[in-house]
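ARCHIVE CARD
SHELF: 3
SLOT: left
DATA:
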Amino acid sequence: MFPAPEILGIKISWFELITVLSILLSLVFGRWFYRQVPSKPPLAYSLLTIGILLVVGYFATYFLAFIEGQSYSFVLNDPTFEIKFGQSKKFLGFIFLIYCLVLFDNYLYPINRFNTLGDFMAIVVCFFIILEANACLFDGHGCYGRFTNLPWGMYFLHGSAPTLLPVHPTPIYISLSHLFLFIFLLIAFKKHWIEGQLLLVLLIGTSLFNFLIEFVKDTQQLLLGLNFSQLVYGWIGITSFIMLLTTTGLSSERN
């Protein structure tokens, strides 16, 4: 959307710059918020877990991209079909990884180690998404939605995928929706929800928002009028909601 900035005569990608700043600000916020968590794992364990999530989530993105490519090739019967690989796929890979860890902790290795970190991580990750979504907005490499004549349609004249027509600024949609989710998570945290529930709320909220935002993108439909990302987000959101209801029901029985 904006021309690449220059520092000491060197052009720097908006995407890389904002991503780095988002990570640094999230670490600062996480360090402050860590002090507010009553029952918390060691700080080193918390930061190490989040760091591993970021790295493994990056590779999970490529795994999902491979599955997506194979799915479209099979359904469309087009072995040459190519998918767009961008920021939205990275979010999907990261959220999918968190979802898998929640399943692993709750059902395959139920000792609640991950849940003790869940409340802290849910709020920090949501804070990170609010900031990092703007990386694509500033860089303008094609993560926007389809053409729109709505008053808030934006022009992306710079970057690797410029557009001469106003389009849906989907990065702003993602950032604002997660801002509301962030406020809700903070309120729920203050009310002392059951350990691990905030992480499920994050999965439900981000799945719902991204599921809806995909409708204003030019993405090939795969099944039932939905694209691959919507099918994955739909599965994550529904099953996470069931897990949230399950944890709420268990808490009621205990009380």
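SLOT: right
DATA:
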Amino acid sequence: MTVKNLFPPLLKGDKIGIASVSGKTNHDKILRGVNFLKTLGYFPVLAENISDSQRYMSGNDDTRVKGFMDLLRQKDLKGVIFARGGFGALRMIEKIDFSVLNKFNGFFMGYSDITVLLNMIAEKTHHFVFHGPNFSDLDKSDTGIINNIFKGLIPNELCGNKEFISPGVASGILCGGNLASLASLCGTRFMPVFKDKIVFLEDVNEVPYKIDRMLSQLRLSGSFNGVKGIIAGSFEGCGEIDLIFEILKECFPKIPIVFSDCYGHGNINNPLLLGHPVKINSFSQRVVYL
């Protein structure tokens, strides 16, 4: 399989920051993530608020922002992996200092609640942004795939175990992520621009009518106007997948839709490179980075 070389590979001993901007963390899961990175030969640098707790978040808004910004100011970091999802990123997104963010020279990776940050970073900066495992479940990931990401390598072809739900050919910049997190941005200035793009969607533990409701909200707001194609990831715990397919086809009746359970909250959560052009082709049965 063809592999794209994205950026200079990380070297053994390089440092990767671990930012905690959403839910409060679990000590044991963080420790497993630390051991995973060290096994690969990299050194994790934990945000100062990694063990903080306020209600269901890893500290108050200012503390979480400061922990994130302080990591970005460390010039020897090669990337940032977010600690976990949950909730909290939405509360601090408006406090991010873009002058600091733009000076950072590294990749970002996370998913779930981190969706709100990933799309903003991909849209407004030059960084490589991966929708992929958070630090708290990094140890469940395929070691080879994660190691390749750190080396700047990504397979040209997306969507293993894919199924084309609606036929067609489309290309555009890849964006999106967790559906509930995207719906929470609706009506804010941080809502991603989906026009002319390929949109990736996934979710977890949302019953079908709630999936329908969130898709309808985004459609009626105009957020989906001009979307070129849809990549549907796992909808873990969201009911029968055929019903989810039916809802997606009703929301997006005239564009190609491809499903792959290799991305999202399911058993597999391979990294997807947001902000990069991709092409869906149901006739050749391929989804590729361009």
